[in-house]
Design brief:
The complex is a heterodimer of chains A (768) and B (137).
Chain A lengths: L1 H13 L5 H4 L2 H19 L9 E8 L4 E7 L1 H24 L6 H20 L3 H19 L6 H32 L4 H6 L1 H6 L3 H15 L8 H4 L5 H10 L4 H13 L3 H23 L4 H22 L2 H32 L15 H15 L5 H14 L5 H27 L15 H19 L1 H17 L15 H22 L1 H14 L4 H23 L4 H22 L14 H19 L3 H21 L3 H22 L11 H27 L6 H13 L4 H9 L1 H23 L6
Helix pairs in contact in A: 1-5, 3-4, 4-5, 4-12, 4-16, 4-20, 4-21, 5-6, 6-7, 7-10, 10-13, 10-14, 12-16, 13-15, 14-15, 14-19, 15-16, 15-19, 16-17, 16-18, 16-20, 16-21, 17-19, 17-20, 18-20, 18-22, 19-22, 20-21, 22-23, 25-29, 26-27, 27-28, 30-31, 31-32
Chain B lengths: L3 H24 L7 H18 L2 H7 L4 H21 L9 E6 L3 E6 H26 L1
Antiparallel strand pairs in B: 1-2
The chains are: A mainly alpha (768), B mainly alpha (137).
C-alpha cells in the first residue's frame, strides 16, 4: 500500500517533465494509473471480508511511539475504490473538458496529487499521519478552487474554503492530541482497544467536540456548510471529484473510523445527528431555489453529507449499513451529474437553469444518463438510490434518541430532494426550448463515457444489490461495528412501514414538482422570500469577521511596531532588566559574597581610566572626542583580558575596537552637526534607564562569581584539547572543533546580519 | 581623503597586515590566533587600503566581492562538516592527517583547519561588506 502512494507522488511530479506527445494525453495516462490502483484494490476485496484488516507498519519516529500505519479493511477499501475508480473516470473526462485551457500542468499535478493524498488519508491507521493527509487535501482543494484565480469570486471562495477547512484541521489535531494523551498513542487500533478508557476520561467531551469541528468543516456540515457552494468556482472535474465524491467525505470517513473508539455515547448520538439533520434540511431546501446547475448540485451534496453524518451519528447496525450503501450511491450519481453539468456548460455555454431547456432533441444519450442518475438521487426504483433511501428510512425509524424529529425532517428533506431531482432533469432536457448560440451535439465520447459507466453500475447494483451488499458493505459494516454482520440487500422489501413512507414521500415530491413547473412565478416568489428571510448570509459574516480581524491586527501592529528605534531599545532593556531583577529576587535576593580590593594596583588604575573615559565620553563637546573616549574604554578592557590570560579575546577586542573606530571615522563627515536635541526630561529618563540596566549587568557579574558549578565544563576542554583535537590553543579548539556547531551558527547569523546592514545602508529612502 | 603619506604607508602596511593575518590563521590551533582574528586582520588590511586610496579600488581594481567571500567561507565550513559523515562517523567529527614535509617537519592537517579557513573568509567578507556599504552612503 505505501508503494501505491509513492507511485502517486512520483507520477504527479513526473507530470512536469513529460515529453510533448505524452503531455497532450497526460490525463489519459493519469486516468490509467488510477485505474491500475482501482484494479489493485478491487482484487483485494476477497482478502478483507468480515473484520479482517490488512496492516503495514513503517517505523517513523519510534522514540515517541509514532509509526506510519497503513490499514486496508472494508471501510478503507470502499473509499479507496471510490477514489481510484471515480478518479480514473474524472481524468478521462478532464481530457475532453480541460482542452483549451492553459496551466493544465499544475492543474493535473494538484488533481492527481489530491488522489494520492486522499488515498493516504483513508489508508492511515495513525491519526497524526491521517491529519497530515487531511491538511494536504484541504490545501490542494484550495489550489484547485483557485484555478481561475483571475476571478475575484474564485479567490474569495478558495480563501474561505482554505480558512474553514484548515481551521477545522487544527481543531481536529488538538482533539486527536487531547484524546491521544489518555491512551498514549495515536494509533486508531489502540484507541479502539482502549475505547472504555477514552470514554471515561475527562478529555472525552472536549476532545470529541474538537474532532467533530474538524469533521464538520471538512464535510460541510452546518454551520460550516457555506464554503461548499463557493467551491463550485473550481473547474467541473474538480467539483465532481473533490467536492462531491471524495474530499468532502473525508469527515464521514473519520467519523466511521472513530465510531468504535468514540461512538455510542450520549454526546455522539445527539450532537452528530443534530448537525446532520440540520445540514440535510438546509441542503435540500436551498437546492430548490438555486438557478445554476452547479449550485443546485452543491446544495444536494450538502444534503447528502448531512444524511451520511446523521446515519453515522445514529450509530446502530442498520444506520451504519445504510450509511455505507448511501456513500457509494451518492458518489455514483453525484459525480455523474457534475460531469453532465460540465458537459452542458461546454456544449451550450451556460449553466443557468433558466436559459436551458429542450435539450432532449440534441442530447438524447445525455438525457438518458441524467435521468437515471437523477432517479438514483431521488431514490426511485430501479436504481441503487431507491434501495439506499429505503434503508435510510428503516434506520431512521429504528433510531434511538431523537427518532421522531429525525424521521419528520427526513421525510421533508426527501420530498424536496425528489422535487429538485425532477426539476433538474425537466429544466434541462424538457421544458421550453431556448435559443442557443451554438447547436449542441453528442460529439466527444470522452464526455459521456464516465457518466455512462457510473450510471450503468448504479443500475446494475440496483437490480443485483446482493453483489455489493455481501462483499464491500458487509465488510465495512463489520469493521465499524466490530462484529461479523451479514448484509443482505434486496430491491423489493414488500409492503411494510418503510414502503408506505416511501410512497408518501414520492407522492408529495411529485406534487411539489408539478406545482413548480405549472406555476413559474411560484419559484420566483420563493426565491424572493428566501432572499428577504435569509438576509443574514454566513459567507458575508465570514468575510466581515476576517476583515475585522485584519483591521484589528493592523492597528495592534501599528501600536507595537511604531518605528521609533529608541523606544524599541528602551522596551527591550527595561523588559530584560525587570525579568532579571525578578529572577534574582526569586532565587535568593541580593546576598553578595564578592569582596572588594584594589590589588593589583595596575588593574585598579586601568579601571579608573576606563571609568573616567566613560564619564568623559558622556560630557564630550564634539563627536570625535566622544568616540576616542569610547576607544579608550575598549582598549582598556582588552588590557584587562590580557592580564587575566585571555590572549585570544584580548587580540580580538583590540582589532574589533580598531575597526569600529575606523568605521566611525568613515561616517563622521556625513553625520549631522553634533547637537544636543534631548530635553532635560528625556535625559533624566535615559539616565534612569541606563542606571537600571547598568546595575542589572553588574549584579549578574557579581552573582556569577558565587555560582558554584560542581564540575566546571572548562576542565574537560583543557584536558582533552591536545588529546582529542590535537590543538594547544583551547579557545580555538573549542571554537572550531568541540563547539563547531555553535560557531557555524554564529557565523551564519553574522553573515545574515551583514547582509541586513548592507541593505539597510543602501536603501535610498531611509530616514534619520 | 587623499593623503600621500597614507597612500605610501598603505603599500607596505597592507602586506604586513595580510601576512600577519595568515600567520594568525595558521598558528591559531596551537597559539593565540585563529580564523576569527586572522579574518579581522585581513579585513583591516583591505579597509586600510580603502581609506588610503578609494573604496572603488577594493571593488573595481582588486575585484573583491564581499558577498563572494562570505559564500566561499560558508561553503568551506559546510565542506569541513561533511568529512565526518563521509568517513562514516557523526557530523563534524574532526578528521586529521599527518604530513611529513621536508622543511617544516611534521604537519598535522585536519578538518577543523578547513573550518577555521571558512571562518576566516566569512569574517573578511563581513568586514568589507560593512566597510563598503558605509563608504557608499
Amino acid at each position: 500500500m505505501p508503494q501505491i502512494l509513492l507511485i502517486y507522488l512520483i507520477s504527479s511530479l513526473a507530470i512536469f517533465i513529460l515529453p510533448k506527445w505524452v503531455d497532450e494525453r497526460k490525463p489519459i495516462l493519469l486516468g490509467l494509473i488510477n485505474l491500475g490502483a482501482f484494479i489493485f484494490f478491487f482484487l483485494g476485496i476477497p482478502f478483507i471480508s468480515g473484520q479482517i484488516q490488512y496492516t503495514r507498519f513503517i517505523s517513523w519516529i519510534p522514540e515517541i511511539g509514532l509509526n506510519l500505519e497503513f490499514v486496508l479493511d472494508g471501510l478503507s477499501s470502499i473509499f479507496a475504490l471510490l477514489i481510484t475508480g471515480i478518479g480514473s473516470l474524472v481524468f478521462f473526462y478532464s481530457y475532453r473538458y480541460m482542452k483549451g485551457y492553459s496551466r493544465t500542468k499544475p492543474f493535473y499535478f494538484y488533481l492527481f496529487l489530491f488522489g494520492g493524498a486522499m488515498l493516504g488519508l483513508v489508508l492511515s491507521g495513525n491519526l497524526i499521519q491521517l491529519f497530515i493527509f487531511w491538511e494536504l487535501t484541504s490545501f490542494l482543494s484550495f489550489l484547485l478552487i483557485n484555478f481561475f484565480h483571475e476571478k475575484p469570486e474564485a479567490r474569495r471562495a478558495a480563501f474561505q474554503s482554505l480558512f474553514i477547512t484548515v481551521f477545522g484541521g487544527l481543531s481536529l489535531l488538538s482533539g486527536i492530541i487531547l484524546i491521544g494523551s489518555d491512551v498514549n498513542s495515536y494509533s486508531i487500533n489502540v484507541w479502539i482497544a482502549n475505547a472504555d478508557i477514552i470514554k471515561a476520561s475527562n478529555h472525552y467531551v472536549p476532545g470529541l467536540i474538537l474532532i467533530l469541528i474538524g469533521v464538520f468543516t471538512k464535510s460541510a456540515q452546518f454551520p460550516f456548510h457555506f464554503w461548499l457552494p463557493g467551491a463550485m468556482q473550481a473547474p467541473t472535474p474538480v467539483s465532481s471529484y473533490l467536492h462531491s465524491a471524495t474530499m468532502v467525505k473525508a469527515g464521514v470517513f473519520l467519523l466511521a473510523r472513530l465510531s468504535p473508539a468514540l461512538g455510542g455515547t450520549f454526546e455522539w448520538t445527539h450532537i452528530i445527528p443534530l448537525a446532520g439533520v440540520i445540514t440535510m434540511l438546509i441542503g435540500s431546501y436551498f437546492a430548490i431555489t438555486q438557478t445554476g446547475l452547479k449550485p443546485i448540485l452543491a446544495y444536494t451534496t450538502i444534503n447528502a453529507l448531512g444524511v451520511l453524518v446523521l446515519l453515522i451519528g445514529i450509530d446502530t447496525k442498520l444506520s451504519i449499513k445504510a450509511a455505507m450503501l448511501f456513500l457509494i450511491i451518492h458518489a455514483f450519481y453525484k459525480a455523474t451529474l457534475f460531469m453532465v453539468a460540465g458537459m452542458i456548460d461546454k456544449k451550450v455555454g451556460t449553466m443557468d437553469i433558466n436559459k436551458l431547456g429542450g435539450l432532449l432533441k440534441y442530447l438524447p444519450i445525455t438525457f438518458i444518463i441524467t435521468l437515471l442518475a437523477v432517479l438514483s438521487m431521488a431514490g426511485l426504483p430501479p436504481m441503487l438510490g431507491f434501495l439506499g433511501k429505503e434503508l435510510i428510512y428503516e434506520a431512521k425509524i429504528q433510531s434511538p434518541g431523537i427518532a421522531n424529529l429525525v424521521l419528520f425532517l427526513g421525510v421533508a428533506s426527501n420530498v424536496l430532494m425528489i422535487a429538485v431531482s425532477l426539476f433538474f432533469v425537466y429544466k434541462i432536457f424538457l421544458g421550453k426550448p431556448q435559443p442557443f448560440e451554438k447547436k449542441p451535439n453528442e460529439k466527444g465520447p470522452g464526455f459521456w463515457l464516465g457518466p455512462l459507466v457510473l450510471v450503468v453500475l448504479s443500475l446494475f447494483f440496483g437490480l443485483f444489490p446482493s453483489i455489493l451488499g455481501s462483499t464491500l458493505v458487509e465488510s465495512a459494516v463489520s469493521t465499524i461495528r466490530e462484529e461479523d454482520i451479514i448484509v443482505k440487500l434486496k430491491l423489493w422489501h414488500g409492503f411494510n412501514d418503510v414502503f408506505f413512507l416511501s410512497l408518501f414521500t414520492v407522492i408529495l415530491g411529485f406534487a411539489l414538482f408539478f406545482l413548480l413547473i405549472k406555476r413559474d412565478r411560484l419559484l420566483a416568489r420563493w426565491r424572493a422570500l428566501n432572499r428577504s428571510i435569509f438576509k443574514f448570509k454566513l459567507t458575508e459574516l465570514f468575510d466581515n469577521t476576517m476583515e475585522g480581524f485584519v483591521n484589528f491586527t493592523t492597528r495592534k501592529s501599528r501600536a507595537i511596531q511604531h518605528g521609533y528605534h529608541r523606544y524599541y531599545i528602551l522596551t527591550i532593556i527595561l523588559f530584560t532588566s525587570v525579568l532579571i531583577w525578578y529572577q534574582v529576587f526569586v532565587t535568593g535576593g541580593f546576598k553578595l559574597n564578592a569582596s572588594f580590593s584594589l590589588d593589583p594596583f595596575y588593574i585598579s588604575g586601568l579601571i579608573a581610566v576606563i571609568i573616567s573615559a566613560g564619564t568623559f565620553s558622556i560630557f564630550a563637546k564634539t563627536r570625535i572626542t566622544s568616540i576616542i573616549a569610547l576607544g579608550v574604554i575598549g582598549y582598556g578592557i582588552s588590557l584587562i583580558y590580557l592580564y587575566y590570560g585571555a590572549i585570544d579575546l584580548s587580540i580580538t577586542q583590540i582589532i574589533v575596537e580598531t575597526i569600529i573606530i575606523a568605521m566611525f571615522a568613515l561616517v563622521l563627515q556625513k553625520l549631522p552637526r553634533f547637537a544636543k536635541l534631548s530635553s532635560s526630561i528625556t535625559k533624566f529618563r535615559d539616565i534612569i534607564v541606563a542606571l537600571i540596566f547598568g546595575s542589572v549587568m553588574t549584579l549578574i557579574a557579581l552573582r556569577a562569581i558565587d555560582i558554584d558549578f560542581l564540575d566546571p565544563i572548562s576542565k574537560y576542554y583543557i584536558d582533552n584539547s591536545m588529546i582529542k583535537a590535537f590543538g594547544k590553543n583551547v579557545v580555538n579548539v573549542i571554537l572550531v572543533d568541540f563547539r563547531a556547531l555553535d560557531t557555524m551558527g554564529e557565523v551564519i547569523v553574522l553573515s545574515i546580519a551583514a547582509f541586513g546592514v548592507s541593505l539597510l545602508l543602501q536603501s535610498k529612502t531611509g530616514k534619520t | 581623503m587623499n593623503s600621500v603619506i597614507l597612500q605610501i604607508a598603505a603599500r607596505y602596511v597592507r602586506w604586513m597586515l595580510l601576512i600577519f593575518a595568515l600567520v594568525a590563521l595558521i598558528r591559531g590551533h596551537n597559539y593565540p590566533g585563529g580564523g576569527f582574528i586572522g579574518g579581522l586582520l585581513a579585513g583591516l588590511a583591505l579597509i586600510y587600503d580603502g581609506f588610503a586610496f578609494d573604496h572603488k579600488r577594493i571593488s573595481k581594481k582588486r575585484k573583491i566581492n564581499p558577498v563572494g567571500y562570505i559564500g566561499v567561507g560558508l561553503l568551506l565550513i559546510f565542506i569541513s562538516l561533511l568529512f565526518g559523515i563521509l568517513s562514516g562517523d557523526v557530523l563534524m567529527k574532526g578528521i586529521w592527517i599527518s604530513l611529513n614535509l621536508p622543511l617544516l617537519g611534521q604537519l598535522k592537517l585536519g578538518t577543523p583547519f578547513i573550518f577555521d579557513i571558512g571562518v576566516f573568509f566569512v569574517v573578511i567578507g563581513i568586514t568589507i561588506l560593512f566597510f563598503l556599504s558605509l563608504k557608499r552612503r
